[in-house]
Write a structure and sequence with these properties.
heterodimer, A: mainly alpha, MetI-like fold, B: mainly alpha, disordered N terminus
Amino acid sequence: MSMVASKRPLLVGTGKLFRRRSAIPGLGVTLGVTLTALCLIVLIPLASVFAAATQLGLGGFVRAAFSARALHAYALSFTASLIGAAVNSVFGLLTAWALVRYDFPGRAILNALVDLPFALPTAVAGIALAGIYSTNGWIGAVLAPLGIKAAYNEVGVVIALTFVGLPFVVRTVEPVLRDLAADVEEAAASLGAGRWRTIARVILPALAPAWITGFTLAFARAVGEYGSVIFIAGNMPYRTEIAPLLITIELEQFDYGAASAIAAVMLVVAFLMLLAINAVQAWSRRSV
Amino acid sequence: MARATPDASQDPFWAKAAVIGLAVSFIGLMLVLPLVAVFVQALSKGLAASLQALGDPDALAAVRLTLIAAALAVPVNTAFGLCASWAIAKHDFPGKSLLITLIDLPFSVSPVVAGLSYVLVFGLQGWFGPWLETHGIKIIFATPGIVLATVFVTFPFIARELISLMQAQGTDEEEAAVSLGASGLTIFRRVTAPNVSWGLLYGVLLCNARAMGEFGAVSVVSGHIRGVTDTMPLHVEILYNEYDFVGAFSVAALLCLLAVATLVLKTALERFQPQAESRAR
């Protein structure tokens, strides 16, 4: 310990050297545990998916991963996730705005409720939504006379995916909106900008990176979602079958190869989403 | 706020009412209604029927397995989160941002894919399957598999919370402790831990909620053996598919209570945590 202490004056002067060799002990052990756990729990199991998929050979992989049924499933998962994330972007922004800018009775309750999809098990959300939106449910019964069916079809999938992605946009936009200095808005106003102009030219551009991050997070969460969707989707092949469901169906038939092929496609998408989120966040840090 | 042009940086009343109205209706429709629906359905045949469904031996076994899975997964991820955040927030090393990205990976991987990956490693046809079978160890379609799948899906929760908190707090206090001759463990116990205790609680709370509620990953590795490898969310599915709606919604209502308790505790943590820590957040 005295050695470290005697080294310090030397290192404090040279910022670069000091940064490379932190004086705080414990890096070796903690980093070792971190990397071991990461490999054992996350990386090796995920690698097994790619290993199983490559055993199919190129032709077999393409046949399994890009069969007509699988392509339908990807298309549904991606479109429904996009629509859900878009709905959440609009209403998430409004909700964040109401939470940050206005004071109204019940605001604290609204704030707490936003995180419900993080705390509520997805299977519970699934059966609850299926009950509400089926034709004899509370909302389904209202929609049915209008000729709108909102459960056991594509609409039901979108509803479930909107539910699971709801907190992301609110929680990413909220802190940025709060930190946005009021004087910037007042400056814009004092220079003669109207309220709409201030919102469009000053506030929304400042929110854009957080907004896009929230959208991407909601989308990424929705693409992989399983529990809440399967109860309300109807799960008809070629119509309302999402990609994760197709994996479980292949597994039930003990077709591990086909399941792995579809899972490998989903994993590649997950990696790309993660890179996209990181890129957006790096961009937002630069622009702030 | 009272400036020369107050109106220009304030929203008119109608806009305010519209935004609040839309936000409240959206949350009400998407979140409150499903929550209420679960309780209404659970109690549709009266409280006695609901309680009887919860007293069913299979339901109780599911509750027990859910508690076991969470009781194992949360401490494992707490230990991991503390190690990862100490290494990442208090030190510099090459590849750090890649490491943070990899820790976040389970957030964007579909739970079903996570479950499948454990089947591929530990299942009968898997990498270690034959070895495990000759040694009489069962992981897939048994409790260990359920615990592993739960650890996977909750892997980033505590680490991510602690990393951002410790990064915001910097290393000044720890460096001061080092120069005074304190050992690593002492620094952690006396300096770092008190600074991050609320953040840790917050992470544990969210990790626990997800651990108890996980469905997709657990569903793949469980094998759905009633009363044996059934967790509460899986039991909800089984009862629902058997058209036992009172039973399904009663177990679901129990999980709703867990969710509501989580949100109440989370709000309380945010409200009562010390100022220094909340500023760092």
